[in-house]
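Working notes for the structural subgroup meeting. M.R. asked for a predicted model of this chain before we commit to crystallization trials. I am recording the input and output together here so anyone reviewing the notebook later can reproduce the run.

Input as submitted:
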Amino acid sequence: MNFNTYETLALAGFVLLLGYFLVKRISVLKNYNIPEPVVGGFLVAIALTVLYQGWGISFTFDTNLQTAMMLVFFSSIGLSANFARLVKGGKPLIIFVIAAAILIALQNILGIAGSLLLNIDPAYGLIAGSVTLTGGHGTGAAWAKTFTETFGLQGATELAMACATFGLVSGGVIGGPVARHLLKKMRRDESPENDEQSDIQEAFEHPTFQRKITTRSLIETITMLVCCLLVGQFLDAQTKGTALALPTFVWCLFTGVIIRNTLTHVFKFNVADSAVDVLGNVGLSLFLAIALMSLKLWQLAELALPVMIILAVQVVLMAAFAIYVTYRMMGKDYDAVVLSAGHCGFGLGATPTAVANMQAITSRFGPSHKAFLIVPMVGAFFIDLVNAALLKVFMVVVTALH
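Returned structure, recorded in token form:
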């Protein structure tokens, strides 16, 4: 069954409403800060898997809508990035990049070592490492062809998609419990709801905050977001196959930064941050809902047992790394807790999952401007460059082991 744009959007809305309903009423989901799109999307994915296994019915959703919502989210991140705030990233941003690089190296070492211990091709271990975990579905698909051509792996693409799927779900599930554990150590209590709060910088950190928006501010913001998507896709097409090639969402984010700061600092135009953040959060929620309900969970069942063992250990590694390394490197404070939850998101899945993890924390325990400045920048840009560089090193190692 194929779902068109409207049908996909309608089902995504129901998925989100289901997630909100369950998280509000099931204390364990609320207490461990599991993002609503993960709850609703995962349950729908299970239901669709049952239909597939029992009656052979499969579902295909509009991937163009999913991609568009992802680009809207990253564009909103760019539009909310005032240079006055970006310069505050400084040293903590560099430290976080270093922490992310260390995790990438550990993921690949664990993947290769695990494959050798389990007597399978070490290239499979690399696929179950940073290629699909820190890299996600996009990086996994891109590298699968290389693994097939270089090492003659069979089913590399299917395996990469399955590993990335496992990571995406796991990243959304463990972020909340990791943060909960760290918050207990800090003895941090929930922040009381405050509908009179006016600090617009808390918009992404506090997605349930009631913001004042107008028809004009929405139209202005939609216009800026569409410009980001158009320019981002144009730049992606112009740089494809060159040394400047970057993922489309990175170009959209950069375009948003330029538009925002040109309007603010050159034309003295007040960008409606409240509208930017509302539409950005809508894009994020819909992207996650569509991505998760599109998961073909039966691909996970088809994974070889050794790869599943490696992936399970990778999840344990991510949780331990966030608690004992990321948290400590980032200062052992509340910002470090939120950063650790975010690291679980893109360390196993994707940047939108990282943001959803952080929102689940900040909506209950208070804002973290540092985390919402650093994680999108690292997850959307720096991490891809670091991952690509380190993967080339580990490819040499795998080649030598052959």
